[in-house]
Design a protein that fits this description.
Radius of gyration: 16 Å
Number of strands: 5
Structural class: alpha/beta
Order of helices and strands: EHEHEHHEHEHH
Strand content: 5-15%
Number of domains: 1
Length: about 140
């Protein structure tokens, strides 16, 4: 399994010692993006919807898609936007409207919404696929 370091990381000197690691960059707080793109092995690009919700800030879906578009390519991937405390139907809609290749996005399920539903029972398969893809994509075969 890949460990992603959450950002921002301060002081900057500590971030710079993590060259070659994997990072999670939030759309809500992207200040370490440029540095992590330079030094990181891969990025998980989080949509920041939870941070927006907890701070009472509206989530800008179009802004997130515009932000992630030029960055989203192997080995980087994004967290498909979700509706915090939304219904199963809302989560399905967000997943269905992901405008990028499915291999570049992983949906999120929240326990209160979907944990005991038929919809969430598919989750372990998606995580196994992610782990397998991540493991094989990071092998050094030379």
């Amino acid at each position: 399994m890949i460990h992603y370091h959450g950002t921002p990381i301060t002081p900057r000197s500590v971030l710079e010692t993590l060259a070659g690691e994997h990072f999670c960059i939030s759309y809500f707080e992207p200040r370490d993006l440029k540095t992590c793109l330079k030094i990181g092995q891969s990025l998980m690009l989080d949509n920041g919807a939870f941070s927006c919700k907890t701070r009472g800030v509206p989530f800008d879906l179009r802004g997130f898609y515009d932000w992630i578009d030029p960055i989203l390519a192997h080995p980087h991937w994004g967290v498909v936007p979700d509706v915090i405390d939304g219904t199963i139907e809302q989560q399905r809609e967000m997943t269905a409207t992901w405008p990028f290749p499915k291999s570049f996005g992983i949906p999120v399920w929240h326990r209160r919404c979907c944990w005991r539903t038929k919809y969430s029972r598919r989750r372990p398969t998606k995580i196994r696929r992610l782990r397998k893809r991540s493991f094989y994509s990071n092998l050094n075969l030379s």
